[in-house]
Amino acid sequence: MNTSNPQAGHLNALTTRQTRALFGLIVTTLVAAAVACASGSFDISLWALLKGNASALEQSVFNQIRVPRVLLSGLVGASLGLSGAALQGLFRNPLADPGLIGVSAGAALGAALIIVLGSQFAVGATLGAFLLPVAAISGAALVILLLYIMTRGFGYQGVTYMLLVGIAVNALASVGIGVLTYISDDAELRSLTFWSMGSFGGVTWPLLVPALLAITVALLMMAPAARALDLLQLGEVEASRLGVDIVRLRYRVIFSAAAAVGASVSLSGMIGFVGLIVPHLVRLIGGVNHRYLLPGSALAGAGLLISADLLARTLIQPAELPVGLITSAVGSPFFLWLIFRMQKL
After folding, report:
1. CATH number for domain 25-344, candidates 1.10.10.10, 1.10.530.10, 1.10.3720.10, 1.10.3470.10
2. pLDDT digits (tens, 9 = 90+) for 292-319
3. Fewer Cβ atoms within 10 A, N terminus or C terminus of the chain?
4. How many Å apart are CA 224 and CA 212, to the nearest integer?
């Protein structure tokens, strides 16, 4: 008597494939991080560091510049990749992106206010270093509050209205940034332009640690939503019948993604397309199960931004390209391919 179950065999094969994919992403991200820590305009021997034979300059560059920068790029990539995967699952829209709900725009407007008008605030050098991230996080928090207030009365239709609010916030933020750009002087305009294209330069441990905590907490809050997001792909009515609290799931994903993206934008600037392209690449590698997709997107996003930052630092040494240019150069063609692919389906 044949007791084999083809469906069970397929699930086991899929699980094995996803486990291998996650292991491959972990190894790739760790290798990218090691290469990024060692390479740049000033090369560092990791072997000498491990043996304790590195010079004082190498140790200083490694501990105070390279490690914080690689950690930040990995954290930002993980938050953007995971947030993109979760939002695409929540909206059931392959074009969803963390910037879609307006949080990135709100954070950008807060940062732009400090870049252009920050010289008018009489604060010490220590507090002044925190003005930019605090303003960006405040802008993101304001958008979260607006999203909550303006959509809490719409029930199951709240997602549609949330998208509309995001479009409006993006438009208003663009107007605000445009006005600030117009009134800025040459130095402020240069800083604003460079920040808007994204960069991990200038990060320090005092700025990194609070962002690390905020992003980590937000990502941990988003992780338990994997099974509910899988059920949601059947439709909101079916998911609700299967025990999914749609309203609670929506707010968990939205607020976690907003907090992670707001903290990321506050220190790195505007980095586009990561939340859009990473989940699709991870699906192509291992499938659409969110228990695999969420951690896979976090790992792939981290590896992608670590690698992009390495390219930004090394392509035109000793100068440095904005990381946003690298991600946009990769993401724009992928975005067009995705649109044409959806048109053919």
Report:
1. 1.10.3470.10
2. 999 999 999 999 999 999 999 888 877 7
3. N
4. 20
